[in-house]
UniProtKB/TrEMBL annotation:
Cell membrane listed as a keyword: no
Stored PANTHER family: ACYL-COA DEHYDROGENASE
Cofactor(s) required for function per UniProt: FAD
Lineage of the species this protein comes from: Bacteria, Bacillati, Bacillota, Clostridia, Lachnospirales
Key words of the record: FAD, Flavoprotein, Oxidoreductase
Chain ranges of the Acyl-CoA oxidase/dehydrogenase middle domain: 122-217
Keyword Hydrolase (UniProt): no
Protein name per UniProt: Acyl-CoA dehydrogenase
Species of origin: Lacrimispora amygdalina
InterPro entries recorded: Acyl-CoA_Oxase/DH_mid-dom, Acyl-CoA_Oxase/DH_mid-dom_sf, AcylCo_DH-like_C, AcylCo_DH/oxidase_C, AcylCoA_DH/ox_N, AcylCoA_DH/ox_N_sf, AcylCoA_DH/oxidase_NM_dom_sf
A Pfam family of this chain: Acyl-CoA_dh_M
Amino acid sequence: MSKLSKEEFQAYLMQIRKLAEGPLEEIQKEVEVTNKFPKEFYDLSIKNDLYRCALPVEYGGYGLSELEILQVQEEFSRGPGGMRMHLHYAMDLNWRILDDYGSRELKDEYMNKFQDKSVFTCFALTEATGGTGADLHTMAVKDGDSYILNGEKTLISHTDCCEFAYVIAVTNPDSKKDDRLSAFFVPMDAPGFEVINMPHMMGCRGAGHGELKFTNCKIDKKYLLGKEGQGLEIAMHSLSVSRAHIAASNLGMAQRMLELSLQYANDRVTFGKPIGTRQAIRCKIADMSMMVHALRCMVYDFAKSYEENPTGEYIEEKAAMCKLYSIDTTRKVSDEMLEIFGGVGYFEDCKYGPVERLYRDCRAMWLEEGAPTVQRITISRNTIKHGAKMEYII
């Protein structure tokens, strides 16, 4: 494929917004009950190139810039949260880890299969017995031309629809440095690999989650990503970029919640006047609009920085800031939205849109790719290192 022109890209954004707020919303009525995506969702995503568009041209993609990828994500994030969770991953970690760290052999075999979901992945870092960083316990022991994996992972998304798992495991248990971990591209059908489904979630219905269990799971050494001992670097860099994508998702949700709130405030009349004319409501609208605008500026600045240098000095810090501020934004905007709608917004069916579901769905963002405390640790560490300086791409 060739890159889209500016006009073609703008038309594509409108296409994705209509998809998110139209057909995907209709499908979600069933998903809220079954907690499972029907085949129609995957078919529509393939038809609308949502697995393809973020890929480089050489793998059948659109060759979008990082900013354009985040703009597409903002549009589909206006729709159902579980589908957003699936598609957000499809636009980033799903293919990018293999592209960044896979061997030429692995990339030649699998990269072009991401474009139509012939290959989909999950990212397995978190463990019940540790955190999501250096304190992991899943082991990968070298055995000739293979590795033997033993251990467990938890809270892993997309385990219901993937063929491979990016697994971060301990290969050098005696080390107390960053080289303790390695990363692997593990086939889900490898002997000794088991998936245990987890309960339904409060929001983001349809996105499957599970626990992964490895019992003497043997994989060929070709599935090692990067070099042995590079696992923590791979995980942290990949998460840094993904945190900015979480922020773009929050941006899409917050923008739609603001629009719904404004629409209702203009229609709802009390004492002969629309509530949108009252100072108290206008103050809420002002705060919501300000935070959405500020978040968009942060996300776009990150995108420009990433395009200039994906491993730049400020990438990790900016991504964590985007994620953290986006949580504050969706918290404020969703709370104000519910106050503006009042009791009408608390019901599942609302003629203005999915107010109740958006309120539930956005709560998952507190947790995806690291809780607020993790973002603050990352930001403070980098701020101290940089002496409170920051680089801006204008």
